[in-house]
Amino acid sequence: MGAALPAQLSIIDVDRPEGRQSYLELSGDIAVGDWWKFVKLLRQHPSTTGVWLRSEGGSADDGLAIAKHVYEHRLDTMVTDVCHSVCAIIFLAGQERYLNADARLTVHSAYKRLADWVVEDHLANGTVAWFIGHMGYPLPIARLWVSTASHEMAPITLEMNDKLKLGFTVIK
């Protein structure tokens, strides 16, 4: 595994069919403390309507807090490249979810590092499963998250979007 790139947060303008909109771009690995930076930036830019995600994942706690904020504030989410692990939960939290047809959206169970060991984080996995259900997604999506080993990646595909009626808007 390569060196983690710290999350970069910035406000950008995005052209949407409805016109130009302000989005918060989140790229890089989500680290402890990024939830507060995320909220602070949104408070400074209250007209922000969405979050553009490009992340390999990171801190389950901060990622889940960001997802909760996105969900409660009805922000849209967009992925055009990669969104792995807890980033995918943030994506699912969006009111409107835009996914590029070539994007990679993958998930795995939560884990913690204890010295040289990697162990499943059952509390985080339970929280993820509950939150996915709370947002109204079908049980197979929660199962995919918590049943995929932490060292593997399971894709959420466009076929799953259609079959399970996940509601992503596919963009080019």
Name the descriptors.
6 helices; alpha/beta; 32% strand; 172 residues; eight-stranded mixed beta sheet; 2-enoyl-CoA Hydratase, Chain A, domain 1
CATH fourth-tier homologous superfamily of one domain = 2-enoyl-CoA Hydratase, Chain A, domain 1
Distance between the termini: 30 Å
CATH topology of one domain: 2-enoyl-CoA Hydratase, Chain A, domain 1
Mean pLDDT: 93
Order of helices and strands: EEHEHEHEEEEHHEHE
Per the principal axes of the C-alpha atoms, what is the gross shape? globular
Structure classification: alpha/beta
Give a short synopsis of this structure:
By secondary structure, the protein is α/β, with parallel strands linked by helices. It has helices spanning 34-44, 60-72, 86-92, 122-134, 139-147, 158-164; strands spanning 8-16, 19-27, 50-55, 76-84, 97-100, 104-107, 111-114, 117-120, 154-155, 168-171.
Structural write-up:
With 172 residues, the chain is α/β, with parallel strands linked by helices. The protein has a domain at 8-104 and 156-171: 2-enoyl-CoA Hydratase, Chain A, domain 1. The chain contains six helices and ten strands; from the N terminus they run E-E-H-E-H-E-H-E-E-E-E-H-H-E-H-E. Helix 1 (34-44) runs parallel beside helix 2. It is globular and about 45 Å long. The relative contact order is 0.13.
